[in-house]
Amino acid sequence: MYGIFRRLGLARSRRNRTAGDEESRPRTFSAGGILRTLIQKRRAIDVIVGDDGPTFRLHPAFIQDGSVLFRRHPHERFLLGREVMLFCSLPDPAARGRTMFLRSEADMDGQFFNYRGEPHLSCLAHREFEEWQRRRHTRYRLEPQADVQLDLWTCPRGEVPVPRTGPELTCGNGPGLAARVCNISASGIGLYISNTTCVGTMFEKDRLLLRLSVGTKVFILLAEPRYFSKRAGFVYVGLAFVRSYRLASGKLQEDAAPPFTALALAAKALGTE
Question: I need a surface site. Which of 94, 142, 162, 262 has the fewest CB within 10 A?
Answer without folding.
Answer: 94
